Amino acid sequence: MRQVLLVDDEPWVLEGLRTMVNWEKHGFQVCGEALDGPEALVKMQELRPDLVVTDIHMPVISGLELIERSRRLLPKPPKFVILSGYDDFNYALTAMRQRVAEYLLKPIDEDEFESILDRLGQSIAKEQEMEQASSRKQSLFMNNILNRLIQGEEGERLEQEAVAALQLGGDPELLCMLIDAGAYPSDLKQKVSTFFSQNAERLFLDGLGRVGVIVRTDELSPPRLEEIGLAISSKLSDLDRPVAIAVSEVGKGIRSVRELYLQTLETVKAKREQGKTGFFLPCHHPQPPNTEDALRGKFELLLGAVLQGEPGAAEAAVEEAFGSLACSQMSVESIRVFAGNLELTLCSKIKKAGGDADGFMVHMQENEGNPGGISDYPALKRYLHKLSREAALLLAGLRQKNKNNTMFQVIKYVDEEFRSKLKLQTLAKKFHMNPTYLGQVFKKETGKTFNEYLNEKRIEEAKRLLKRTPMKISDIALQVGYPNTDYFISKFKQATGMLPSAYKSEFLNEGSKKEAGTKPAE
Fold first, then answer.
1. Which CATH number fits domain 406-515: 3.40.50.1950, 1.10.10.60, 3.40.225.10, 1.10.10.10?
2. How confident is the model at residue 434 (pLDDT cuts 50, 70, 90)?
3. What CA–CA distance (Å, rounded) separates 388 from 53?
4. Could you give phi then psi for residue 185, rounded to 5 degrees?
5. Check: CATH 3.40.50.2300 for 2-128?
6. What would the pLDDT profile of 457-489 be if each residue is shown by its tens digit?
7. How buried is 275 (Cβ within 10 angstroms: 0-12 exposed, 13-18 middle, 19+ buried)?
8. Looking at the whole model, is its pTM more than 0.90?
9. Ramachandran sector of residue 207 (left: φ over 0; alpha: ψ -120 to 50; beta: rest)
């Protein structure tokens, strides 16, 4: 049910609003009422309604002022229906400017009101679906970054992406916690996330189906994290399987993430082998020799077959890999790690080929589940057959699509080399095209001229550096491809309406307000 707050300074009007329509029939539930603007603001912050129905003429704070203040105070303001006893064009015009959902005259026509509720219900439902889809994609993106780190992938670009996405600039002290519930329930990550509302973006599922989280010690101290670990252990005690939770030692900066993860992995594995469950601090449990080398060899064998784009060869490689793994008596757990590695690498290859890697993984997980939830050889073998076959088909299709698509290669080159001294003429020469023709096709493909596209890429990178680094503006200009600082400043202002220095100051001020817990003045 979507929640609605009723606001009017006359109690009899509130009573009428509450009883004149069947709210539940239209998917709404009255969650509260308020007799004036200040009371409504308090209840909006407490109840977080989806819809507010408010009178426009009230003492202290008018309905229009209530809308304006709510948009300053609330991270996600509700939709509004304005009620007025006057057919006042100026009020209606102001309401439209403030993006009020509906403007309704008193006395209220019941049929019109119900029609409005139906429209708003559909609008709210559509927005919620879009937010959920966006949240799933963002979660997959964060999960991908963290898994690449814990699997040992290196590179300056990955580090920069991770620092920015996970807010780990300045080499902060870090801890890792890992929760292992065996063949984990589908909602394990959601259950754990309730304990880490401030660190939700650093929650991840590893290739084994365990839930991990990276925290900063200036946000959660080791003693506090230990308390949370014990609380999680208690909350998950109702599961029909044993749960092991481990916390790492303190590390420093993004490059420590893999080591911290391995510490917790060693701990939970050791405790599992000992038949123990609960919450544990770090321990040392050496891995069997050559395990990683054997996994890497099988990983490369199967990956090579998939990248050829031949489904038959890929499935044959799965059979060969499982035959070798069975002979070497590798554990199911080790093969689950292998499957997780394969997923991450295939996502990277699909993305580089211009495919939808997030969509591919959503499709796999919706249809086949997560390999972390598989606990036997036959099921893992079936999963890898499906993963390898579908990835091979997708990559083959992308390769064929891009084979003769010079523009795909041109755009890819610009995306990777925009920091360099790029000109349309030199680009045309590199790809053996006429400059005029290249410019026309480039605009047709991207919707922008070459210079517009190039400047947009550079300005976006400059904005990221202004937010995330202490670099000087002149250094940022050079870094993103503008040798002339004045020209960079001109282009930045043209694109954003602000000078780079003002943009950086505004971002820092917003960050300071959040840290201090301040609210915008009313």
1. 1.10.10.60
2. confident
3. 53
4. -70, 150
5. yes
6. 999 999 999 988 889 999 999 999 999 999 999
7. exposed
8. no
9. alpha
